[in-house]
Amino acid sequence: MPKINASTIAGHRAQQREALIGAAIDILVNEGAAAVTPATVGTRAGLARSSVYQYFDSSAALLATITEEAFRRSNEALNRAMAAANGPVERVEASSGKASASAPKAHTGPPSPIRTPASIPPARNG
């Protein structure tokens, strides 16, 4: 039986999902999109590959989720920077500087192969 490190099962599932998202982001940034697979994400998060499928149907679903998460984090950083700005000049500086400084670092390794919709397996139902 897996160890639950939260006060509720829902809390535990939220923690596991966040761990998977964090691992997937780390892999994407450091190794590229092709490396974001249920096996590598599960290993990085300390979970079995089969456990990853309880949260995400496929590599494509993982990539979609971390893309959404990156936009959410960037918007939050931009909103904080804009709220802290005093006047229009600082708002312009905040929108172009502080928000981009908090964005994930770009992948600097070899380019990942581009996957066309035909090469992405369909999502599993169930």
Question: How would you explain this protein's 3D organization?
Answer:
- With 126 residues, the protein is mostly helical.
- It is 60% helix and 0% strand.
- It is built from 5 helices and no strands.
- Helix 1 crosses helix 2, helix 1 crosses helix 4 and helix 4 packs antiparallel against helix 5 (88-101).
- The two termini are 22 Å apart.
- The model is unreliable at 98-103 (pLDDT under 50).
Tell how many strands the DSSP assignment holds: 0
Counting DSSP H or I runs of 4 or more residues, the number of helices is 5
**What's the rounded overall pLDDT mean?**
80
- The SSE order reads HHHHH
Relative helix content: 55-70%
Q: Supply Rg.
A: 18 Å
Silhouette: elongated
Strand content: under 5%
Structural class: mainly alpha
Determine the N-to-C terminus distance: 22 Å
Short account of what is shown:
The protein is an all-alpha fold. The chain is built from five helices and no strands.
Task: List the defining traits of the structure above.
single chain; 126 residues; mainly alpha; elongated
Task: Give the helix/strand layout.
Elements (H helix, E strand, L loop, with lengths): L8 H23 L6 H8 L3 H4 L6 H26 L3 H14 L25
Helix pairs in contact: 1-2, 1-4, 4-5
